[in-house]
Amino acid sequence: MRRRSILWLVPVALLACREQSRQSVQPPSAPPQPPTAAPADVSHGEAAVGSPGEPAAIDPAAPPRSDRRRHRVRIEITHKKLTIADGVTYDAWTFDNRVPGPVLRVTEGDTVDFTLVNRAPMPHSLDFHAAEIAPDRAYRNLMPNDSLSYRFVARVPGAFMYHCGTAPVALHIANGMYGAIIVDPRQGRPAAKEFVFVQSEFYTKTLADSTRMIDWEKLLGLAPDYVVFNGREAEYAHHPIPVRVGERLRLYVVNAGPNRFSAFHVVGAIFDRVYLDGSLAHPLEGVQTVTVPVGGGAIFETRLVEKGTYPFVSHAFADATKGAVGMFEARTGSGVP
Ligand SMILES: [Cu+2]
């Protein structure tokens, strides 16, 4: 029996050798030539800039702060095809049918009564970085059509990630299972226009029906096809976000990864304050670009000083080229929500 199974491997090995030799005789591809045409306007050339009137697929506005001290949160896990770039449909694994999952917002000291329901045909789970809890109790794998409830107190303010923790975790995150939970300090923060951006990557290969699914080799090789904010390539370049000149902007940035650090930067602006992971201790003041590590978050405050279009990017520019770019359109007068 054993001998038979080994013999069975021989043609497979021969095929692999043939494929390797076929690849090795291919001529090297020509190096890319620098463009000779004038680049596009102020978009840093990374993405076409759309008109700010059209709504984006995922509203980047932060949900309002709640006065409730106890929150009942229920999230359903599904598998669903979603658009991740113009004309690109991806076979995603989701929390509540969206990527990223819903933005949750509670206040320091609040109690969260959480229920997770698995409507997908395989095991999944959910790990809240904002919780202090035994993972083997709360973050255990949930079988299809099963549910799980637990309670935690959001003790620490910040901008936190949540994600599926089922192994291999990189696969579950890369397929779309992540989101942000904001924990406000009890005393609140000064008034501001607030947005949430979750950065992440997609590693894709094309299926027969032209939809895309995960390419595990690209993931292990750290070579994403798309790096995105809120689940879509350059979504807020195609749908710029209107803001007012001079108003305080507060940006909750969470980096879901699963691999690429974010070098978050707003072109044409300097951050007045940055709270690493959202911690109130020792905010950075007067800084240009701040790393948001994979699995981490940060809260950025800035103002745009004059009318114009201001890109925000991961300043690791290969990633901006792959979609980690958006736009604020700073306006004066009426017309800004
Ligand atoms: Cu999962």
Description:
By secondary structure, this protein is mainly β. The protein is 14% helix and 39% strand. The longest helix is centred in the N-terminal third of the chain and has 23 residues, at 2-24. The site of copper (II) ion has 6 residues, from loops. Copper (II) ion (CU) binds next to loops.
Short description:
The protein has 337 residues and is mainly beta. It has six helices and 21 strands.
Largest sheet: 6 strands, mixed
Return residue spans where pLDDT drops below 50 for at least 5 consecutive residues.
1-25
Q: Helix/strand-derived class?
A: mainly beta
Let me know the average pLDDT: 89
Q: Give the distance, in angstroms, between the N- and C-terminal Cα atoms.
A: 71 Å
Instruction: Tell me roughly what share of residues is in helical segments.
Output: 10-25%
What proportion of the residues form beta strands (DSSP E)? 35-45%
Number of strands: 21
Run of helices and strands? HEEEEEHEEHEEEEHEHEEEEEEEEHE
What small-molecule ligands were found? Answer: copper (II) ion
Output the radius of gyration: 22 Å
SS summary, helix count? 6
Strand arrangement, major sheet: 12-9-14-19-16-17
Q: What's the shape?
A: globular
Give the arrangement of secondary structure elements.
Blueprint: H1 2-24, E1 70-85, E2 88-95, E3 104-107, E4 111-118, E5 127-128, H2 135-138, E6 147-153, E7 158-163, H3 169-174, E8 178-184, E9 193-202, E10 204-206, E11 212-214, H4 216-220, E12 226-229, H5 235-238, E13 241-244, E14 249-257, E15 262-266, E16 271-276, E17 284-287, E18 289-292, E19 296-302, E20 308-314, H6 317-321, E21 325-331
Parallel strand pairs: 1-4, 3-8, 9-14, 13-21
Antiparallel strand pairs: 1-2, 4-6, 5-7, 7-8, 9-12, 10-11, 14-19, 15-18, 15-20, 16-17, 16-19, 20-21
Bound molecules: copper (II) ion (CU).
